[in-house]
Amino acid sequence: MEQKKFSDMEFNEFIKYINDISGIDLSEKRNALDIKITSFLKEMNLQSIREFLNKIRYDKELRQKTLDFVTVNETYFYRELSQLKEAVYYIKSLNRPTSVLSAPCSSGEEVYSFAILAALNAVKDLHITGIDINRKMIQECKNASYEGRSLDRLGEAEKRRYFTNDEGSVYKVKKQELCRCRFELCNVFDDGFLRLGNFDVILSRNMMIYFDYESRVELMQRFHKIGNAGARFYAGNSDQIPDTPYFTKVFVPRGGSYYVRNEI
Question: Would you place residue 2 in the very low, low, confident or very high pLDDT band (cuts 50, 70, 90)?
Answer without folding.
Answer: very low
